[in-house]
Write a structure and sequence with these properties.
By secondary structure, the protein is an alpha/beta fold. It has two domains: about 260 residues, Rossmann fold (3-Layer(aba) Sandwich), CATH 3.40.50.1820; about 90 residues. The protein has a nine-stranded mixed sheet, with helices on both faces. Helix 2 packs across helix 3. The longest helix has 18 residues.
């Protein structure tokens, strides 16, 4: 996969925002004086924008790379809190004339890319592999906002670290991406939905939970998630923990995401050996980054991810605090996942859905037999489900029928 050069931009008369770009290429330092969380009128406010030249299926659509204001859903060193951040991303609109009320919009949450600034999809014409899915949403007649998530993306000069799998931050970044898109393109309406897979599935699910209050002023109709990273805490069992090779590849990213919130974490307590030696390769992006990660995985040894019971007992509640559901969702959800997932065990996802059902959520869930984490293959069903929600049709509810 090749790295795309940042497109040069110009000011957009529709918004009046500057297109000035400041490039950050290394992992950002933690800031001691954190800005306050933005008020509702400033959420999604544009900091900058520039042209975006999409590749592949996106080449025929108009888009902008943006930086916008958002909220981190935590405080470093604390279990709870918030502070203000800047987030980059891409917003695109369909061709033709918008419908009455403006284009409906989908906030699209990308799957795991990494934890360093060069892992923001907005810096690549193919959106790091998501161009086809985003183009299918545009062809359905919807605008699309693709946030990089906090800490990812090279346009942000004063970025905070990426809090990988922190759900409140992901939710706020998704919701504020919709607000930013509406500031860029005046013909986007206030009706929106969320969609994503893996990390993006967690983001879409979390966005559904915070759409009612944090997303006030917008009309949320529902979200879809494929293989959502709803709850990873069951994998941590201390001396008895056994990871798949694929799970080991994600350990440095999970560690980086937790360290953004808990700076006191010590890497050596959780991984060493080849995993530690290849930390950078396993968390950053760029030319041939996927091949680099697979090469690193070939060097893993059995003890590289071993942890003591004491270390596990410290880590487990941190992951449990990030598990979904966090609260009742503000709209219906469609959730699909494979029963052969080697990263997020299907039993963990089934349990998370059960908890959401008990909270009263309306969920249409499906376990896809014989499928793993990246080949669930339900994007067509997700788009059809979203079409029904935008049309105002009632959502199916497998919670009510007991089918999960």
């Amino acid at each position: 996969m090749s790295v795309a050069a940042c497109a040069s931009g110009s000011s957009n008369p529709e918004s009046g925002a500057s297109s000035t770009t400041v490039v950050a290429t290394t992992t950002p330092a933690r800031t001691s004086a954190l800005p306050p969380a933005p008020g509702i009128s400033d959420r999604g406010a544009l900091v900058s924008q520039e042209s975006f030249s999409g590749g592949g299926d996106l080449v025929k659509y108009r888009g902008r790379r943006v930086v916008y204001r958002s909220t981190a859903g935590y405080r470093p060193g604390a279990a709870t809190g918030e502070f203000g951040t800047q987030v980059s991303g891409v917003v695109l609109i369909p061709n033709g004339l918008p419908p009455t009320g403006g284009w409906p919009i989908v906030a699209y949450g990308h799957g795991t890319t990494g934890t360093t600034p060069n892992c923001g999809p907005s810096g690549y014409p193919d959106l790091l592999g998501d161009a086809g899915t985003v183009a299918s949403l545009l062809s359905a007649g919807w605008a699309v906002a693709v946030p990089d998530y906090q800490g990812l993306g090279t346009l942000v000069s004063d970025a905070q670290p990426h809090p990988y799998l922190e759900p409140r931050t992901a939710a706020f970044n998704m919701i504020d991406a919709v607000r930013a898109a509406r500031r860029v393109f005046g013909d986007i309406g206030d009706t929106w939905a969320a969609m994503g897979s893996s990390q993006g599935g967690q983001a879409a699910w979390a966005a559904a939970e915070y759409a009612g209050d944090y997303g006030s002023g917008l009309h949320f109709v529902g979200s879809t998630a494929s293989a959502p990273a709803a709850d990873l805490s069951p994998v941590v069992r201390g001396d008895a923990t056994v990871y798949t090779t694929t799970q080991k590849m994600f350990i440095p990213m999970i560690f980086d995401g937790l360290k953004a919130q808990y700076p006191q974490l010590n890497e050596a307590d959780y991984f060493r050996g080849a995993i530690a030696a290849d930390h950078q390769a396993l968390t950053s992006c760029g030319p041939d980054y996927l091949e680099s990660r697979l090469g690193a995985a070939l060097e893993f040894q059995p003890g590289d991810a071993a942890m003591t019971t004491a270390a596990a007992d410290k880590l487990r509640p941190m992951l449990q605090a990030r598990a979904l559901p966090q609260r009742p969702a503000a709209g219906p959800m469609y959730l699909a996942y494979g029963d052969q997932d080697q990263i997020i065990n299907s039993e963990w996802t089934t349990a998370a859905i059960g908890r959401a059902c008990r909270l009263g959520d309306v969920i249409d869930s499906e376990i896809v037999h014989g499928k793993g984490h990246t080949n669930v293959g339900r994007s067509g069903q997700e788009i059809d489900w979203l079409k029904d929600r935008f049309a105002g049709r009632p959502a199916p509810n497998t919670c009510a029928s007991g089918v999960r």
